[in-house]
Amino acid sequence: MQILKNIKKETYTISESAIVLEKELAWLSEVIHTRIALYFEHETTLTSIQDVLPPELLNYNTPYVNFIKHERLSVEERLLLILALVPHLKPALLDILSTKNKEYDRRFSEFGGVFLDGYSSFIPTAQTALFILTGNNIAERLRYQPLVINKGTIIKKDIIQKQLSKSSTSDLNKVWKVAQEYVDYFLYGKPYEIGYSPDFPAQKIDTKQSWEDLVVAKSTGKKLQEIRDWITHGKTVLEDLGLEKRLKPGYKSLFYGAPGTGKTMTAALLGKSTGKQVYKIDLSMTVSKYIGETEKNLAKVFDQAEQHDWILFFDEADSLFGQRTQVNSANDRYGNQEIGYLLQRIEDFPGVVILASNLKDNIDDAFTRRFQSMIEFKVPDVEQRYQLWEQSFSERIPLATTIDLWKIAKQYQISGGVMMNVVRKCTLQAVAKQETEITQQSFVMAIQQEMQKEGIVLT
User: Fold this and answer.
1) 382-453 sits in which CATH class?
2) Locate the AAA+ ATPase domain: which residues (predicted)?
3) What fold is seen in the domain 202-377?
4) H-helix or E-strand containing 274?
5) Number of Cβ atoms within 10 Å of the Cβ of 453
């Protein structure tokens, strides 16, 4: 499942979003008061919370409304969603559920809820959600319990904050609160992003460049276009043409070549040019000394990537996907098991996975057969270096017009990454010296210094 895939772009105002949420909160408030009245057998004209009709939202075009429409949420799931947003919007709405049971001088356990550090208000739990839906009706409770534990849309899509109340492992004590990343989407339309951490060893990568700025060999460009075509038309190939029974979903590609040849930037450009977020896997954080932790951490990455239709980029993949070791110890055996797990998850992943390596031969043959493409990133030739030099400097502090750029491109055979370091160095020097252009001397000196730093022999 892909959480926000295909949801149409929203054109709305903050005031429209506020109107929608106020309507939903008012509906939830009436539902809760109805549930309380029914539960304690207070006088009421209603016989069920289903008698409290949800507001009509079809004419609105906010992120919250479009999510409800796209996911086809039932009335019950919609109620659970707005309940989970209450702590972020109007916590006082739930004060009625913090009422004490005077007979036992404590809160009603059937209401659920917790008071967390840093919050002065009642925070609902899954138990709270279940009480609102079912009251004390056991049959209804059995019917709806899967909805708040493992079957509901917002549960399966990890929209609910994964946090249990203290000293508890019960799913019903799980805090019923939308994770902040999704709050930003529902309220402001901000795309979902997850934070980088040891438990989630992946980081979003971006680029300010455009696809037109990419300078690669023609053969490389054609292979890259194939990936873009798959991202755009893969669904048509599999579903509309009926090939999903014969072809595995997803696309796996190996980028290989010397450092600084543009593998990471190209991955970011593939995402930017096709509207996909790209997450780079930090393999140094992924491989854990604790048995099983690697699989656990990577499972989180793959699960999130599948839900949100991310492109996954494994940098320096040969360090993890290289030749598997012979089994001489328990650590070797577990290490090979983890590699096997990764190979399987990548093979089964329905989206785009890119692995980057300095050398193609470093990747295990058992996996290279599964790539849809293997794309070499070479050190740019003289024409490509000339083009890169031409487009890389600022128009405000350009190269001196006396510099023979073709001669420079022909003389110094360096990668695009080294070239960008040169641009940074000599532009910074020009700014520091308050110069209006970059001289031949500073340009060539910066090139030679970067080459020496990289261990490249000057010719």
Assistant:
1) mainly alpha
2) 249-381
3) Rossmann fold (3.40.50)
4) helix 263-274
5) 10
Q: According to the model, what pLDDT value does residue 328 have?
A: 46
**Amino acid found at 234:** G
H or E stretch at 311: strand 311-314
Long-range contacts of 4-10 (CB under 8 A, 24+ apart): 4/67, 4/70, 4/185, 4/191, 4/192, 4/308, 4/309, 5/308, 5/309, 6/70, 7/63, 7/66, 7/67, 7/70, 8/66, 10/61, 10/62, 10/63, 10/66, 10/189
CA 278, 62, 352 angle in degrees (round to 5)?
A: 20
Q: How far is residue 152's CA from residue 144's CA, in Å, rounded to a whole number? A: 9
Tokens of 382: 């003289």
- Domains of the chain, residue spans: 14-188, 202-377, 382-453
175, β-bridge pairs: 125
State residue 184's pLDDT score: 85
Nearest Cα neighbor of 35 from 132, 163, 123 is: 132
What pLDDT, on a 0 to 100 scale, did the predictor assign at position 168? 53
d(C-alpha 335, C-alpha 288), whole Å: 10
pLDDT tens-place string over residues 192-237: 677 777 778 889 999 999 999 999 999 999 999 999 999 999 989 9
User: What pLDDT sits at residue 234?
Assistant: 92
> What is residue 3's predicted lDDT score, i.e. its pLDDT?
45
Contacts of residue 425, Cβ cutoff 8 Å, sequence gap at least 6? 446, 449, 450
Q: Report the pLDDT value the prediction gives residue 12, as an integer from 0 to 100.
A: 65
Q: Which two tokens stand for residue 249?
A: 């979903």
What does the alpha-carbon distance between residue 5 and residue 188 come to, in Å, rounded to a whole number? 17
Q: Which residue has the tokens 């020496």?
A: 452
pTM metric for this prediction: 0.69
Query: Strand ranges (DSSP E) for 109-258?
Result: 202-205, 251-257
Yes or no: say if 160 and 128 are a contact pair by the CB < 8 Å rule.
no
